[in-house]
Amino acid sequence: MLDTVRRRTSRLHATRRRRVALVTGSGVAAAIAAALLVVGTLTSSAAPAPSSFPPAAGPPPVDHPLVVLGASISAGTGSSPEQAWPAMVGHCLGHRVLVGAVPGAGYVATGRGEQGPVARLAREADLARLDPSFVVLQAGHNDIGTSPRTLQAAVTSTVTAVSRELPRTHLVLITVFAHVGVPSAEARATDATIVAAARRADPRVVVLDPLAEGWSFPRVADGLHPTAAGQRLVADHVLDGLVRVGLAGPGTCPHGSSPPRLTPS
Fold first, then answer.
1. What are the structural domain ranges in the chain?
2. Cis before 254? omega within 30
3. Is 236 helix (H, G, I), strand (E, B) or coil?
4. Are the C-beta atoms of residues 222 and 230 closer than 8 Å to each other?
5. Per-residue pLDDT reduced to its tens digit, 225-255
6. Beta strands in 60-216 (DSSP E)
7. What does residue 227 show for φ and ψ, rounded to 5 degrees?
8. Is the model's pLDDT at 15 over the cut of 50?
């Protein structure tokens, strides 16, 4: 009789332990799910770019926007999309800017989520429908160390495709941004490969070369990405370059009161 009672008591305790384990497990699972939900919400709620591309099935923009396709410098890494150079340049030129920028992307590098390379961004933008004033391709840093032959082929095909799709639209390249300090030999070689391949593919292409021109600006701790103040200086460099080649009229912005305007194509 005593053995029977002990067995029943043992089974009762075991059942209670399983119930406690199940409740505890459910609580942990719920906590993990909640944490994932919070992380997912935070990740997906990142601030959008100044303007996104309108749906391909919809009507084209009523104006002739500036289209920027590129990497983290254009996405505003280190500051924010609203503080990044494309938004400031668009404000100064009085034109809407559509930005397709993927951190880590390049002419060869696919970048975050494999959303690149730049050629893919150009295809998905449906440039002919957007009918932009001009197109800026900002890429190069993430291709440092890529085989010159592979990089040359990628730049050639990208520039050729954009020029063919928009034969009367100016194409501007912003090439390699390197880490602060003396640029490495690999960075210089990558920059030279991009510039040479682009000019062979389309002699009309406008090249703004941060590496060769010695663009200087404040950077965040990684030594590469501009701070908010740095983005303003990058915008100044871009505007100076556009004025120099005749794509924008004279003016001073963002520091001056008379922003430059686009010159007729």
1. 1-45, 66-244
2. yes
3. helix
4. no
5. 999 999 999 999 999 999 999 988 876 575 5
6. 66-70, 97-101, 134-138, 170-174, 206-208
7. -70, 180
8. no
